[in-house]
Amino acid sequence: MFAAMIFDMLIRGGTCVTPSGSAIATIGIRDGKIAAIGEFKAAAASVVVEARGLHVLPGVIDSQVHFREPGLTHKEDLETGTRGAILGGVTAICEMPNTKPLTLTEADLADKLARAQGRAWCDYAFFIGGSAANVEQLGRLEVLPGCAGVKVFMGSSTGDLLVPDDETLGRILQNGHRRVAIHAEDEPRLTARKAGVKAGTHVREHCNVRDVETGRLAVERLMRLAVQHHRRVHVLHVTSAEEMELLAQRRDLATVEVTPQHLTFTAPEAYEALGTYAQMNPPIRELRHREALWHAVNSGLVDVLGSDHAPHTKEEKAKPYPESPSGMTGVQTLVPVMLDHVAAGRLTLQRFVDLACEGPARALGLMSKGRIARGYDADFTLVDLKVKRTIESNAIASRSGWTPYDGKRVVGWPVATIIRGREVMRDGAVIGSPIGQALRF
Ligand code: DOR
Q: Which of 213, 194, 192, 219 is nearest to 205 (CA)?
């Protein structure tokens, strides 16, 4: 007869969301990788995770977070940011370069990688900022181990990273080969419009200051340059119907990200209810745009869901608009907020997995992540699709200590996080010590 199959870990009896659909199965893990998927009559493992009644998703990857280290660690750091990630069912993150100093050089990247070592609860990679200062080196920098690629701010947001002109942006697109992540807002239009904002203006004007045309113009300029230089781009946090229309014409070069908050909130309601907690760049917009984003999600135009987790302290957020900084937390709430949308029938669970697991892996070229298949990393987000829970600021690990979803009742919750065959979160408690490693591309 057959000898018992021996694994390091078995995840038993959950409904596994695989490329061929969802089915109840047991997953066998060896050496941090998925070794077998099926029904094993005779299997043994030192660790058995009972997943009956749960859905087993590939580990959720949040490819846009700001964790503020170094330099702005009163808002967040790599330990608190990644702790929030695993508590929210996220197994890997890509972190943005608008820290202090900016992440512009090999030494800046090495510093972040050294800081993450032994302190990151989930796997990680860091974007290099593209700027006039490092444009000639980008082709070399983007392929360094632990680098998620190059990120460009076309419009100014938090921090000093900025590429306002086509000349520099064109040079950036000519230096290197990987997909370039872009914050697309048109700086000249932004500067002109910001100059007109008087003290005492209500934050609900944020979406008129940084208006649809500010985003549309930038995407139009970007598409022209991407075609000219034949370079792939990843357009972050797209917010409007008009931008989606342009992006639909350039599926050869552009991938598209949306955030849970742009799929959830609308203007002016969010600004009335949340004040500056609803302020982010690019802004929360009117219902018409939210509906266009959902259409883009369900028609296949959107490639990736990212949280744009961008914490600022409550004190900073209490400043009167427009001095209040832009950004909201999101890494810990991405999964529950989107599962709630699944429960409400706005997207399927399979599509969520496509956007939050496979999508980032495909767009950024991640190795062996994002899919439940033999040989892939044993990263899993175990979710209970039925449970009703309330999102609360006091459960948010972020140093900033708040979420715009405080008090929101949701259906669906991440109940366990497994990274490379190690359970790191169960029922809202972190397990063990930080085991995060650099992602490979
Ligand atoms: O709202 C935002 N906040 N948008 C960005 O692009 C940056 C981010 C931050 O780092 O605070």
A: 194
Q: Is the fold of 6-56+376-430 the same as that of 59-364? A: no
Burial class (CB in 10 A: 0-12, 13-18, 19+), 33: middle
**pLDDT for residue 198 is more than 60:** yes
Task: Please state which CATH class domain 59-364 belongs to.
Answer: alpha beta
Q: What is the mean pLDDT of residues 296-305?
A: 98
In 10 A of CB 397, how many CB atoms? 22
Percentage, residues of the chain above pLDDT 90: 97
Residue with token string 């459960």? 395
Whether the CB of 327 sits within 6 Å of ligand 1: yes
Give the distance (Å) from ligand 1 centre to CA of residue 136. Answer: 26
> Atom 4 (ligand 1): residue with closest C-alpha?
281
Domain boundaries, the chain: 6-56+376-430, 59-364
- 61 burial via Cβ count (<10 Å: 0-12, 13-18, 19+): buried
Whole-number pLDDT of residue 42: 84
pLDDT of 193 over the 50 cut: yes
Among the atoms of ligand 1, which is closest to the Cα of residue 326? 1
- CB distance 206 to ligand 1 below 6 Å: no
Compute the distance from residue 306 Cα to the ligand 1 centre, in Å. 13
Q: Is 284 in the pocket of ligand 1 (CB under 6 A)?
A: no
**Topology of 6-56+376-430 in CATH?**
Urease, subunit C; domain 1 (2.30.40)
Pocket-testing residue among 66, 103, 284, 307, ligand 1, by greatest number of atoms within 8 A of Cβ: 66
Tell me how far the alpha carbon of residue 232 lies from the centroid of ligand 1, in angstroms: 23
Tens of pLDDT, residues 322-378 = 999 999 999 999 999 999 999 999 999 999 999 999 999 999 999 999 999 999 999
Could you give the CA distance from residue 182 to residue 428 in angstroms, rounded to a whole number?
34
What 3-state class would DSSP assign to 150? strand
Q: Ligand 1, residues 308, 317, 321: which to mutate, most atoms within 8 A of Cβ?
A: 308
Residues 380 and 91: their CA atoms lie apart, in Å, by 7
161-185 pLDDT per residue, tens: 999 999 999 999 999 999 999 999 9
